[in-house]
Amino acid sequence: MEKTLLMLILIIKIILTIFASLLGLFLLILIFPTRFKVNGTFEDDQKQLRAGVSFIYGFLRFFLRWENNTISFSVALLMLRVPVWKKSLAEPAKKPKPKKKEKKGSSKLSAIDWISFAGKVAPKIMKPIHFKTIDGDMSIGFKNPAATGLFLSTYYMFRYTTKYLKRIIIRANFTKLGIWGKIEIDGLIHLYKYIPILIFAYKNYKRRIREKKGGSKWLKI
Predict the structure, then answer these.
(1) What's the CA gap between 32 and 25, in Å, rounded?
(2) Are 42 and 170 in contact (CB under 8 A)?
(3) Rounded to 5°, angle at Cα 156 from 151 and 161
(4) How far from 194 is each of 38, 52, 83, CA to CA, in Å?
(5) Which member of 43, 87, 134, 181 lies 3.0 to 4.6 Å from 138 by CB, making a disulfide possible if both were Cys?
(6) Which residues make beta-bridge pairs with 66?
(7) pLDDT for 150-161, tens place per residue?
(8) Rounded distance, CA 175 to CA 144, Å?
(9) What is the Cα–Cα distance from 166 to 140, expressed in whole angstroms?
(10) How confident is the model at residue 220 (pLDDT cuts 50, 70, 90)?
(11) Quick one: 69 exposed, middle or buried, by C-beta within 10 A (0-12, 13-18, 19+)?
């Protein structure tokens, strides 16, 4: 009985230690500045994109790489880097499941609703970011030319909400599917500043859902 009790106490201590360590790591990630870097080159014969996020002055890092039609993801702790996931985009895609018919009175937001929502939230998301480098000149085309036009009009609607997006030029390609050009972004974020932004976004989203259902509009953002 005594051995069982001691074993139980040991297990509880281990669980509490792991929980306290994870909580401490999470708080450090929130407090210390997070550095991110993205650079990509997109040509007809070669397309590559590299993205990295560094937490706690490089103690914990995440890397995403897209090159030669392959996406890979890896994690680094101090000097130890471990590959986590890799996938070839050349693999045959699974057949999409048939879409279910939406019921009348659906509360789902339309594309216009999402654009309006993004118009309120996007400037707040950009505000805490301190860019060191931001530069881009790209051409983008979707399978549906209407989607290309919608994407471009939405981007240019947000482009002048912050001075940084003015440095990224995006053109529409209505004849070909793909992305071409170059982009380079480097900056710092204090993640704790996003806590009130997430609360704002959640309240704004819930208000729009209520309005879509025809419910109360008492909560105003």
Answers:
(1) 10
(2) no
(3) 125
(4) 20, 19, 29
(5) 181
(6) 49, 71
(7) 889 888 888 877
(8) 9
(9) 17
(10) very low
(11) exposed
Q: 190 with 36: CB under 8 angstroms?
A: no
pTM to 2 decimals?
0.76
Q: What is the pLDDT at residue 42?
A: 92
Q: What is the pLDDT of residues 55-79, one digit of tens each?
A: 999 999 999 999 878 999 999 998 8
- pLDDT at residue 104 above 80? no
The pair of three-digit structure tokens given for residue 21, joined into one six-digit string: 């360590």
Candidates 191, 187, 183; CA nearest to 50 is 183
- Quickly list DSSP for 159-199: HTTSTTGGGEEEEE-SSS-EEEEEEEEEEEE-GGGHHHHHH
The three-state secondary structure class of 61 is strand
Q: Which residues pair with 41 in a beta bridge?
A: 48, 182
- Sequence-distant (6+) residues with CB within 8 A of 169 are 136, 137, 138
Residues 6+ apart with CB under 8 A from 26: none
